[in-house]
Specification:
295 residues
């Protein structure tokens, strides 16, 4: 059974990295396209701003230039909808579905109010359900028609989300993070509101790649291009590898996932100690709890 263990405790006045703006990207893209406008429309644009035919307006141009639209389409198994995929993962447990939807709503409210958009999901030790939580949270967000969710499997040591979905990854995550492969050639889009960065194989120098400045540049450029409302990063266990701590400059907050059957309080305390003053702890999720008798 899945239940919320601690409410969102994000400090909205934190000095941690805020949502990365996209206006520079939009302006640059529109300016580049404007040069191809018919002469009369270009003259009107320069003299009177965006006062010309709707099909040549800024919003229309941005829509045409939106790289999200051009991502490779991939289908869920049996052309299933996100809700059906999620219920399959949850063994048709509607109570668990409501729990994830509740988590989705709390996170979106906290993040929207703070201007945040990037969240890392991690557990103290492996096998606690971080990937399961990240995937279900992304699916819950993607069911909101106006929200774009980007899910990145950054567990380069044992990527599993592709297997959970039955979708073949476009390669190794290291190829994307190092800039060897462009985001538009790597990311997959099973639905209009969900994009996936899936990985395959094992990367020995996973932590070193996350430390690299190039990784930050690649991710910042990708976010400005794709403009997701929320980006969810699934990372390896915090007390077993230093991947999360290497990646902290790239996220606005961290959601911890504990396992009621194996995680102990001292492990959670140690994770909080390592994160204190470095990022925002969005909350703690207790996975695999047992419902009380009679409930």
């Amino acid at each position: 059974m899945f239940e919320r263990y601690r409410d969102i405790i994000a400090d909205r006045n934190s000095d941690m990295p805020a949502h990365r703006g996209i206006m520079k990207y939009r302006h640059a893209q529109v300016q580049r396209t404007a040069r191809s406008l018919p002469f009369d429309l270009e003259l009107t644009r320069r003299i009177r701003g965006a006062d010309f035919a709707p099909e040549w307006s800024d919003s229309a141009l941005i829509e045409q230039l939106d790289p999200w639209q051009d991502l490779s389409r991939v289908s869920f198994a049996r052309e299933a909808a996100p809700l059906d995929i999620q219920l399959g993962l949850l063994n048709n447990d509607r109570a668990m579905l409501r729990a994830f939807d509740d988590l989705r709503t709390q996170l979106l409210r906290a993040m929207d109010g703070s201007g945040w958009s990037r969240i890392a999901i991690v557990s103290p030790t492996s096998g606690s359900g971080a990937s399961f939580t990240a995937l279900n949270l992304a699916l819950s967000v993607s069911r909101i028609p106006s929200k774009r969710a980007l899910l990145m499997d950054l567990d380069q040591r044992a990527p599993d989300i592709a297997n959970m979905l039955g979708i073949q990854a476009n390669g190794m995550m290291a190829d994307l993070l190092t800039g060897a492969v462009a985001p538009q050639n790597y990311l997959l889009k099973p639905t209009y509101t969900l994009a996936l960065g899936l990985g395959s194989g094992r990367t020995e120098n996973a932590s070193e790649i996350l430390h690299a400045r190039r990784t930050g540049e690649v991710l910042n450029n990708m976010m400005e291009m794709m403009r997701p409302d929320i980006s969810i990063f699934d990372l390896p266990a915090m007390l077993e590898h230093d991947d999360l701590e290497a990646f902290l400059p790239q996220v606005d907050g961290v959601l911890l996932v504990a396992d009621a059957t194996q995680t102990v309080g001292a492990q959670i305390t140690e994770c909080e100690r390592r994160l204190e003053g470095k990022t925002n702890i969005m909350g703690i999720i207790l996975n695999r709890t047992r419902p009380a008798k009679g409930s």
